[in-house]
Specification:
Number of domains: 1
CATH class: Alpha Beta
Structural class: mainly alpha
Helix content: 10-25%
Radius of gyration: 15 Å
CATH superfamily: FAD/NAD(P)-binding domain
Strand content: under 5%
Largest sheet: none
Distance between the termini: 10 Å
Number of strands: 0
Order of helices and strands: H
Shape: globular
CATH architecture: 3-Layer(bba) Sandwich
Number of helices: 1
CATH topology: FAD/NAD(P)-binding domain
Length: 100
């Protein structure tokens, strides 16, 4: 990660970042990590945090009632802000950017 103001670069070891765009949801990779409802959707709270600390979900894979693209985009933005706050709380105040 690179702080956009100080340009300080810091490496944080993570298992992965998943971005999924499409009609068919792919959630098998978190099946044993997070809570699912009876409809097979990931259960999230209002910050789009799942039952597993540090894992966030948004859009069609979640238990949120609306499944429209524009709503999913807003949920994705909220989840990204929540993930950023989580990283700041646990790893410091460096903001994530694409590093060269």
């Amino acid at each position: 990660m690179q702080d956009v103001w100080t340009q300080k670069v810091r490496e944080i070891k993570i298992d992965g970042v998943f971005v999924e765009i499409g009609y068919v949801t792919k959630t098998d990779f978190v099946r044993n990590l997070v809570e699912f409802n009876t409809a097979g959707r990931i259960v999230v709270d209002k910050s789009y945090s799942t039952s597993h600390s540090g894992i966030f979900a948004a859009g069609g894979v979640t238990d949120s009632p609306s499944k429209q693209i524009v709503i999913s985009a807003g949920e994705g933005a909220t989840a990204a802000i929540s993930a950023s706050k989580y990283i700041q709380r646990h790893y410091g105040s460096i903001r994530a950017t694409e590093a060269d």
